[in-house]
UniProtKB/TrEMBL annotation:
Its EC number is 2.6.1.-. Residues 34-383 form the Aminotransferase class I/classII large domain. It is an enzyme of class 2 (transferase). This is Aminotransferase. PANTHER family: ASPARTATE AMINOTRANSFERASE. GO terms for biological process: amino acid metabolic process. GO terms for molecular function: L-aspartate:2-oxoglutarate aminotransferase activity; pyridoxal phosphate binding.
Length: 396
């Protein structure tokens, strides 16, 4: 067949996509083996039946044809109101593009700000799709390393240096953070904003976990001085409303950028199904109570998980301040995160994500998704810690 483009063949630079342990675990489950899956950020509850009913009613009511490409007006208004209320930054429907989930918004944002070959910065550790998304937009994906000793918070000087050295055009950040669980404090956000203004960077802010904050407070960097006209916010119904499969998200930014992004949506997704948008609108109209209800199990499990980790000395936890994950330092075992995760799956049928799936900075760590019932989570973590202690003794 004719040659495929380098854009598509090099999305993962010809290497791993980081999901091997997840694929192995799913294959074992498909073969009928019991596996405790602590890999991906998938709620262990389904979408609320009332939301499903709203989607059903909208579809049966006839909202199954082409929807407006920028999004249904009422949903754009609801998202704008939500952003205004949560960030204090005046936002109108003209600042909002509805997208097929947060991932589509990430891709669209980078398409909007990168000319082919431009350098695009992102913080390491990172959500596994970030570098591939940048490459798909024909950008050069440039990681900015962080340190476990800093709880994986980025340093302003590192961003500044990377921006200068590469002549970067954009920076992608994520708070509350996947995979680390950190909520960026005000000082870190100020350093990010300063680096963006000093180097004329676009900031792409992935805020899909903004309802899952256990310590501190979520601050959108778009709300900082000088940032509203250089920031694109990625949002989604997936985590806040347990609607991962519905593919309902948004991109918020300056009106000129959104106008151009509507052109992109017309040429790519051609919008989001109207009945899905109606379901998303219904979900947002339920207010903060529903969001808190969906977030609460992860707050509880985070506390449970930390209590298990505190009962031993081999495995150490990065302080989990938000999101549905816990990043664990297993370097005392002498194993890489990948080897530890593979062995844990082999020996105990417990699946966790290797830190290396999220970048070089997270080597020697594993990420645990807090997505199973409390008793199964506690049992799995006790087993993980005992397994780590055994490996650490053998390594000593």
């Amino acid at each position: 067949m004719p040659q495929l483009s380098s854009r598509i063949t090099m999305l993962n630079e010809g290497g791993s996509d980081g999901w091997e342990v997840f694929y192995r675990a799913r294959a074992l489950v498909a073969a009928g083996e019991p596996v405790t899956e602590l890999t991906i950020g998938e709620h262990d509850i389904g979408t609320d039946p009332a939301i499903l009913q709203a989607i059903h009613d909208a579809a049966r009511g006839g909202h199954t044809g082409y929807a407006m490409v920028p999004g249904v007006s009422a949903l754009r208004e609801a998202v704008a109101s939500r952003i205004t209320r949560r960030t204090g930054v005046p936002t109108t429907p003209d600042n909002v593009l509805i997208t097929p989930g947060g991932q589509a918004a990430l891709f669209a944002a980078h398409m909007a700000v990168l000319t082919p070959g431009d350098a695009a910065l992102y913080i390491d550790p990172y959500y596994a799709t970030y570098p591939g998304t940048i490459r798909a937009a024909s950008g050069r994906a440039v990681p900015v390393a962080t340190r476990a000793a800093d709880a994986f918070l980025p340093r302003g000087e590192a961003i500044q240096a990377a921006a200068r050295d590469t002549n970067a055009k954009s920076l992608l950040v994520n708070t509350p953070n996947n995979p680390t669980g950190m909520v960026y404090p005000q000082e870190t956000l100020k350093e990010i904003a300063q680096a963006c203004t000093d180097n004329d960077l676009w900031l792409i802010s992935d805020e899909v976990y903004d309802t899952q904050v256990w310590q501190g407070a979520h601050v959108s960097p778009r709300s900082l001085p000088g940032m509203v006209d250089r920031t694109l916010i990625v949002g989604s119904m997936s985590k806040s409303h347990a609607m991962t499969g519905s593919r309902a998200g948004w991109l918020v930014g300056p009106t000129e950028a959104i106008d151009r992004l509507i052109d992109l949506a017309t040429a790519t997704t051609y919008g989001v199904p109207g009945y899905i948008q109606d379901g998303a609108l219904f979900a947002l109209e339920q207010g903060a109570g529903l969001e808190q209800q969906i977030a609460e199990p992860f707050r509880r499990r985070r506390d449970l998980a930390l209590s298990v980790i505190e009962g031993q000395n081999t495995v150490k936890a990065i302080p989990a301040q938000g999101a549905m994950y816990l990043m664990l330092d297993i370097r005392a075992t002498g194993l890489s995160g990948r080897d530890f995760a593979e062995a844990l799956l082999d020996d105990h049928r417990i699946a966790v994500m290797p830190g290396e799936s999220f970048g070089k900075s997270a080597a020697g760590h594993v990420r645990v998704a807090l997505t199973v019932a409390d008793d199964r989570l506690a049992e799995a973590l006790h087993t993980l810690c005992s397994f780590a202690e055994t490996k650490a003794r053998a390594h000593a």
